[in-house]
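Box 4.2: Ligand-aware structure prediction
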Amino acid sequence: MKIVSPPRKLLTEFCALSMKILRLANRGVSRIEFLREVSKMLIHFSGCDALVIRKKDRDYNYYWEAKIQPQEVFHFKKHEDTPLSSTCESDMERFYRELSQGHFDPRLPFFTKHGSFWTGNADQPVTFTSKKDEKKRSYRLKAGEYKSLLLIPLVVDGKNQGLLEYKSKKPHFFHEQEIEFYEGVAQTFEAAVSDRRAQAALRERVKELACLYEISRITQHPSTSLEEIFQHIAELLPRAFQYPEIAAASILLDGHTYLSPGFRKGNYNLKAEIFANGKSRGFVEVLYQAGNFGLEEEPFLKEEQSLLDGVAKQVSLIIEGKKAEEDKQKLQNQLRHADRLATIGELAAGVAHELNEPLGNILGFAQLAKKSPDLPKQTEKDLDKIVGASLHAREVVKKLLIFARQMPAQKTRANLNQIVNDGLYFLESRCSKEGIELRRHLSTDLPDIIADPAQINQVLINLVVNSIQAMPEGGILTVRTRAYSNHVSLIVEDTGVGMSEEVKKQIFIPFFTTKEIGRGTGLGLPVVHGIVTSHGGSIQVDSEKGRGTRFEIELPLTEVQDVVENH
Ligand code: ADP
Ligand code: MG
């Protein structure tokens, strides 16, 4: 028997509740927070004891249960498959499913014309015919301590999307006249959820764009270093995520880590790999700590994975762009260096020519003077010194001329191994005298090159002499030759004093020397540079202070081809 009493709530109160729900949806809180607030409102408003929402959502289905007395208890559960069509379902579940799918005839008792079901005595089985198969069924609702139930299907675009369930421990709690209003509230709830979703999507998109825009803005500053850029991105990333206050971000790149402020490791993470120049270089990661949820909602949105992928891509582009920029800078530096050497070379050549004649006179007249009879011993000694000094000066002039490439190269077909063997022949005894072990590792199948053997010999001697001078206490000197597909290499390696970065930067500058006057002219390596460049080759230097030095001279093979073709 139904007890009919006048509705306790007025239409205006239902309207006010609807407005509150819509306003909440507009605040842009998380789904869990939204469900929590809505449940509280609905329970307070209806005065019932519990509220259950079963809902099919965009990403998954969920089950939500809320109680606020004696204390607030909320329960959220995600369903992988449809929660409303399980195979081993109880009567109750089957009833919910059929109800949520609109399978009951609303003309039957306990149903409203919108398909909601309500009862004030849940212990009593409900019997009716299912619309689906016309079979009469009896359902035991097993509502436990709850005596009154009100189940309202959530309908969107004519499709059932879930069920809103009010439960009360009091029998006959719901009033027939109020149910239509509750159905109205359910509709508002559904509208609010869709609205929230649309708004959330928009908000996420805005955050995402703001984040990408900010990244491109910081990379525009030419003075910003890569480290600063990556640090900035790590700080920026949490803001683009759903829960910025508790999100942490890190970028791991080539072994360096960049962390957002107050970074903490988390249990939930989203990652995107950074690929640059075809190699994996690290990853971008955003993390949450589980403790911050307490509810098992999916912490990341699908869009957030795309955002992170986008950021990883940006990072890759930044690295690749910076590398290209650096390569360009390096090339420009090399050009500038070559330019400077050429200018100095021209100058040096001019000076050398000017000096050649007076030097020849000094030497000649000193030698002539020595032939005078009855010279005092001291004068004879002094003349010897003049001869020695002018010979040294002539040597400097000769090197200057080679450096300035004023002595034309006489290129022929030549074998590097041959040049090395001939050259080392004169240096072997000097090495053993200075306690230096000379090792040779000559490639057995070294192709010929087109080169000036005298000049390549000069290169070898300049390098070997430097190495010998770098090992005053003895050591090991290794000379190698190697064949490659398009060049041959001459490698001179020592276990000597090595060079500081500061020295290494200046070794090709003419007259740069760290040796005392008389021992070093500072022209050995500039000459090497001039010869190698005129042969179309290149020089690599590796050196470590206290450990030793390694010079590798690469001479191209292509010229052999050219010469052969031209003849
Ligand atoms: P010089 O030998 O007359 O000083 P170079 O042009 O041959 O002039 O070399 C310039 C400088 O480079 C040297 O003074 C020395 O400081 C450094 N250097 C060259 N080769 C070596 C080496 N094998 N080990 C250490 N330092 C070297
Ligand atoms: Mg030298």
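In the box above, the bound molecule is adenosine-5'-diphosphate. The mean pLDDT is 82.
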